[in-house]
């Protein structure tokens, strides 16, 4: 079945916008069920003088674009026009039968959700603006409704998920967040079988908070450990705590509620106005600083500190907070050891050098941070033939002030 088959000819309304109908549809969108979004997108497109609109969402591993219309086939992210629009966050126009298909990326803030396919007999500036407006509208609708929709969550899955993973994913933030000054993006695998690894990132006014965790074990308790750690960090952040307060809150929460379990981790605080970066490393691989297409060796190393959650005589007296000043365009990379310890069939590790070279080369090629990590995690999975021996999580954030 060709991609264009489900896309009918535009309505006979022509380029005129039926404003009253469009207003009615936007109001209806507020109470529409997620399963009703495909039909609603169609009707909104018609009101804008366009043809059929189809919604595709990226799956958890960002290999496929899955249609919300369950009767349609999925599209590959790496080998399709739809995938090109998703990867580059740019519209793509294809010839199709007697008309055109516009593939418009669905983006919420900095997070790529999928693509919108819209049929048109011809294109000009006003029609492209309408398609872009439609994509903005449905990106916001999808984001607002997926928080409570199991159906939308199920549509982005291609396999069954283990209970520890289900619990942990309920705590995870969007894959990518950002502002005009900074962006943070993360990936984690195995997507349906992860338990101990987690990431978190949040923007508080002009401050970006990031965190990566690696809980002890690979079971439900490991997921519970990292979930408690994330909850404690968010609780401290939302109370206005500084970085020292946040890490102290995590330590105390784990020691109180899960005294026999701990987690390694790195917590960071970036002032997006000034570029001042604070970080604390709790028994974890050190963050990496990438500047001018090279890793600054040892730039974010620090004296070793115990993992998070140790109680009694093993608990640290006080956490050491470290500080440095970033330069515009700097990237900071956080990762768990499962990333560099992935092995091929001969037992050779993926390794830190291969890991950082991939990041640098992809950045130099102009790839967006989210696309860099998508390609990297797929390269790691392919290297180990999709059979990771340990959880692998990567978080990358970049400082890009307006003056750059």
Fold and architecture overview:
The chain has 404 residues and is an alpha+beta fold. 32% of the residues lie in helices and 26% in strands. Strands 3-2-1-6-5-4 form a 6-stranded antiparallel β-sheet, with helices on both faces. A hairpin with a 7-residue loop joins strand 2 and strand 3. It is globular. The termini are far apart.
Q: How do you describe this structure in short?
A:
By secondary structure, this protein is an alpha+beta fold.
Spans of at least 5 consecutive residues whose pLDDT stays below 50 are 1-14
What does the overall shape look like? globular
Our count of helices gives 11
Order of helices and strands: HHEEEHEEEHHHEEEEHHEEEEEEHHHE
Mean pLDDT: 90
Helix content: 25-40%
Structural class: alpha+beta
Oligomer: single chain
Radius of gyration: 23 Å
Overall number of strands: 17
Largest sheet: 6 strands, antiparallel
Q: End-to-end span in angstroms?
A: 46 Å
Estimate what percentage of residues fall within beta strands. Answer: 25-35%
Arrangement of strands in the largest sheet:
3-2-1-6-5-4
Identify the notable features of this structure and list them briefly.
six-stranded antiparallel beta sheet, 26% strand, globular, alpha+beta, 404 residues, 11 helices, single chain
Please specify the SSE layout and strand pairing:
Elements lengths: L18 H11 L7 H11 L5 E6 L5 E4 L7 E2 L4 H8 L3 E5 L2 E10 L2 E10 L4 H22 L3 H6 L7 H7 L6 E3 L3 E8 L7 E8 L2 E9 L4 H19 L4 H15 L5 E9 L4 E7 L5 E4 L2 E2 L26 E4 L5 E5 L1 H4 L11 H13 L4 H15 L8 E8 L5
Antiparallel strand pairs: 1-2, 1-6, 2-3, 4-5, 5-6, 7-8, 8-17, 9-10, 10-11, 11-12, 12-15, 13-14, 13-16, 16-17
Helix pairs in contact: 1-2, 2-4, 6-7, 7-8, 10-11
